[in-house]
Amino acid sequence: MGEGTTTNVPSEKAILSALDAVSSMHVAELCYALGGDPGPLDHQCDHLERAGFVRARDGETYSITSKGEQRLRVLLRDREPVRVGDPGR
Fold first, then answer.
1. Dmax over Cα atoms in the chain, in whole Å?
2. Residues 67-71: what's their mean pLDDT?
3. Which residues, at least 6 apart from 29, have a Cβ–Cβ distance to it below 8 Å?
4. Tens of pLDDT along 43-57?
5. Per-residue DSSP letters for 30-54?
6. 81: pLDDT confidence band, cut at 50, 70 and 90?
7. Closest CA relative to residue 11, chosen from 50, 44, 47, 53
8. Are the C-beta atoms of 12 and 20 separated by less than 8 Å?
9. pLDDT for 4-42, tens place per residue?
10. CA angle at residue 32 from 50 to 51, to 5 degrees?
11. For 78, which DSSP code?
12. CA distance 46 to 49
């Protein structure tokens, strides 16, 4: 990669949310849905698989596990609320 090149890797929460909405998604579908780069996104999914949050199916197709659903609930619950019009945020 050259200088100034960046990769777009969706967050754990974004990936788990996308997988929670459907039965399974191929990396290419996740890239399209989340705007990520295929290589780094697949690496992030591998990380989530090692943690037990997603399951790989047919190589690059992933689905969320029950442990992943629990993790997503924690991520959604623990987010700090954003108040509209609050200048301190």
1. 48
2. 96
3. none
4. 999 999 999 999 998
5. HHHHH---HHHHHHHHHHHHHTTSE
6. low
7. 44
8. no
9. 445 677 899 999 999 999 989 999 999 999 988 888 998
10. 10
11. S
12. 5
Share of the chain above pLDDT 90, in %: 58
DSSP code string of 9-30: ---HHHHHHHHHHSS-EEHHHH
Beta-sheet strand order (sheet of 54-57) = 25-26, 61-64, 54-57
Task: Please give the Cα distance from 85 to 64 (Å, whole number).
Answer: 35
Kind plus residue range of the DSSP H or E element containing 56 = strand 54-57
Q: Which residue has the tokens 């990769």?
A: 7
pTM of the full structure: 0.78
Q: How far apart are CA 83 and CA 78, in angstroms?
A: 15
* Residue 55 · residue 49 · CB < 8 Å: yes
